[in-house]
Structure formats: structure tokens, C-alpha cells
Amino acid sequence: MELRILGCYGGSAPGYRLTSFLINNKVLVDAGSVTSSLTIKEQTDIEAVLLSHSHLDHVFGIPFLADNINGRKNAPIDIASVKEVIEPVKDHILNDRIWPDFTQIPHTISPVLRFKMIEEDAEFTINGLRVRAVKVSHSIPTVGYIIGDESGTIAYTADTGPTNKIWEKINQEKNLKFIITEVSYPNSMRGLAEISRHLTAEMLKEEIKKIAIPNLPIYIYHLKPAFIEEIKKDIASLNMPNVTLLAQGETYRF
Ligand SMILES: [Zn+2]
Ligand SMILES: [Zn+2]
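Above: query sequence and zinc ion SMILES. Below: predicted holo C-alpha cells.
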């Protein structure tokens, strides 16, 4: 599996791109910075998008991706997630008011985008990847993903506050290579992290205790660019060698 980190921040500023990962050049996981990171050719090669939730920093690239690939592909791109995530994208973004409804363009038989509703915790296959969506504990309905192929599995918790189910699922995985999870705010802003259902480094430490697989690499994403230096210090002071920052622009292979 090849995982390319297009963007991995919980905000947008020069040098800090919104969350979006690309697996095997075909499957996008969240769409924050897809069109600001990939060439038109690379965007055209995408066959499916897995959405964790409908917050703008994770869906921002979908309207522009649809516009860029219109007329360049024979088959629609599947926008996949659970119903509670698909519906707001449909109703509030691709609604012919904020942006054209690209599930009807250029025509309904062969549109640019196609919504694919998935069920929580039901494994399905997409472009050779085994995928399972697991609900996490964010301020709106959100799923993390456990994604695997014959070479191994990764887990992405997406945006979440303290949670349990995805850690339980992770503990059942046999060939897990690494976890991507979040820290959004510095320890000094714990109140805001709790209200917005995100994590600080201190809160992450409690979450890590729920992981039963020892020394598993844990990559942190979703740092808010406005507080980046303080968050980095907080993560460093956890003194956990297996906990490092996810690197924007990096490609992870296994
Ligand atoms: Zn986010
Ligand atoms: Zn969010």
C-alpha cells in the first residue's frame, strides 16, 4: 500500500494544507486539499473518495475536484461514507446553490460524481482495498476508517475526542502498520478541545492507553496551524518515541 499525505492540518495557512490522503493513486481519504496538491492528471486518476465527516476542512476539495475532472473521465468518482456524512454534502454543498450538483452533470446516466452510502462497521472493497468505517466521537457524525490490503492495514481515526469503538476495532487487527489520529489544540486549550470534540496531547495520552498493540507507530494529524508550536511541544513532552507527526508531502509505503 502507498499512502500519500496531501495535507494533514486542521486549518489552512501557507505551508499547512487541509486533510487529504491518497492511497495507491486511486482512493482519496478526505478531500480537504486534493485540488491544491494534485495535478489535473492525478485528480483524474482518482476513483473513489472516503469521507470521514462533512466539516468543511475535509470536504473542501470535492466541488473543485468535480469541476476539474468534468469531461475527463468515463466513470463517476464514488463519494463514499455513511448516510449522516453524505446527506449534508448533498444538501448543503452540491445543491445547485453553493455549487452545481455534479451527481447530475453532465447527465444523470453518467455523472461526474456518485454518492455511495456505506454502512458503519460493514467491510466493503473499493479498488482492491478492504475498508471498514467505524463511528468516532466528534461534534458531528464522523467515521474513522480501517483500510487494508494484502500488505497490511492502517487505521485513521479522523477528527475525534475521547472515543472507544475504533480503539477496540484496532485492537482486533492482525497486520496493522500504523495509526493516524489527531491532536488539534494545545494542552492549554483543553476546554475548547472538549467542547469541539477534539484532542490535546494530554488527552491523546489517555486514548493511547486503550491501544493493546505495543509500540505501534502513531502519526498525529489535524494540528491547528495557529497553535502549531505549542502543540508540537506538548506532543514532544509526551516522551513517546512511537508518537510522531504525520508529514505533509510524505509517502508512506509498506
Ligand atoms: Zn477537521
Ligand atoms: Zn471536524
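The chain has nine helices and 14 strands.
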